[in-house]
Amino acid sequence: MGRPLRIESSDVLYHVTSRGNEGQAIVRDKRDRERWTSYLERVVLRHRVVLYAYVLMDNHYHLFFRLQGPGLSRAIQTLNGAYTNYFNIRYKRMGHLFQGRFKSILIETEGHYLEVSRYIHMNPFRAGMVDRLSDYPWSSYPGYIRKPKAVHWLDYETILSEFRGSRGGVRKAYREFVEGRGVIATISPFDALIHGFLLGGGEFISTMKERFKGYDPDPAIPDLGKVIPRPSVALITEVVSSTFQCEKEDLVCRSRHNNDARKVGIYLARELSGKSLREIGTAFGGIKEAMVCHTAAEIRKRMAEDKRFCKRMGEIIETLHEN
Length: 323
Prior knowledge:
Blueprint: E1 3-4, E2 12-19, H1 30-46, E3 49-56, E4 60-67, H2 72-90, E5 103-108, H3 113-121, H4 123-126, H5 141-145, H6 157-160, H7 167-179, E6 198-199, H8 202-212, E7 215-216, H9 233-244, H10 249-252, H11 260-272, H12 277-283, H13 289-305, H14 307-322
Helix pairs in contact: 1-2, 9-11, 11-13, 12-13, 13-14
């Protein structure tokens, strides 16, 4: 089988954003903000997250961190799930609070700490919520500029160490860096993203692309499909017909629906090609989208129940990744 991708290591930084469903507010008062912050602390400590910066806005939040172990999706899902349960109970509501999956950006560890943290901390000012950034309490910024505001579960040292001088001096220097550069402080470092989710130099981009080869897409990184090579439907039918020693027409003709090769081809196109259900249906003789889903589910169930069949499927997928 294709291997699930987990870009979760100490040599990668993350910027994660999660927004309220349909742009709705995720916090309504001080109590909500305090509860969200307490859940963030819990996630940082339990999931081995090294947090550098965060900001909680009215309808979204930003996090900037590094992982000490696996669990990107689990950490964010824990945060969003726990807070959604609290929010729904308090306001007697049901359903999702956050909009689909969170957005994750992978960042090179060298050269981006200052700019990314500044961008995150400037959010309340850019949104016109405060005249002075130091007046906004629902971010990591107060802990950077005033030692009494620092919390034990956030890493300030990594970013402050970019400046030289006494502890008070580096705090002042960081404040000047964030607040004292006028329009420069409003420029987003993410304007330089590659493929919508990578921030770094050429060597970093090349390394990440190489690391993606042979893996299945990770739903935690929606834009990953832009750089992971996907097998075409034509290649899938060619490899499957060769494996099952049958004619290509046996796969793509609608009248020849009752054969394993055709079902496997539909399943692989559904899982690997990145094509829409309609496009897959058209490629396999004009079948309906529901039939594509039904056939894929049938093969998925058989793989779970038949180890020999699952192993054979794994070999086909490995062949597709090699081409």
